[in-house]
Amino acid sequence: MVVYNFSMQGKNRETHITARLSSVGLLFLLFIFCLSGARQLPDMTRTLPDDAPVDNLIDTPADTPVALYAPSIKLVAPVEPLGLVSGTNQIDTPTDVGRAGWFTKSARPSGSEAGAVFIDGHTPGVFANLTALRPGDQLLLETADTTRYHYAVRAVVTAENSTIDLAALLRTYQGAPTLTLMTCAGVYQEAIGTYDHRTIVIATR
Length: 205
Known about the structure:
Helix content: under 10%
Structural class: mainly beta
Number of domains: 1
Number of strands: 12
């Protein structure tokens, strides 16, 4: 199982992440964002099937993410809520590789909380084709009340695991409502039980 280090401290819930993005990595991400931001985004009115792959939604808050769609890569994924691994400051990951996980301390798509909606998933697994996404591709995030939030991909970046600043990924991009996806990439490292890179997708509404 892959976990990401995360902690919340203080009255203002200041976020601390053990992994820090190097200055070179940060400049690279900003360069990619600037390039993708210059491209005209496509029409976001395309429709998807009405049947969301969700489980029993009784007692689930209305704006809880329950399904993620990416038509360009034929992704239709159930989304489950995930918190921290018990007794740790590590973000949990889905036990089922066919499901994605919404980090419950990140924002909700309704915009009622500041920050990005953060969803992770496994590779191999539900996010195996995430690298095939391109700037401008459509993402739809469905909530328990069947509302669908439309996002357009702004950037797809693969970076070394140790250079990624998860705190930055929990913030919005340029102040717009943001959806951040993350999955494993690169080579599996037996010694640490995880892959050495991560693929990150930044999308905005």
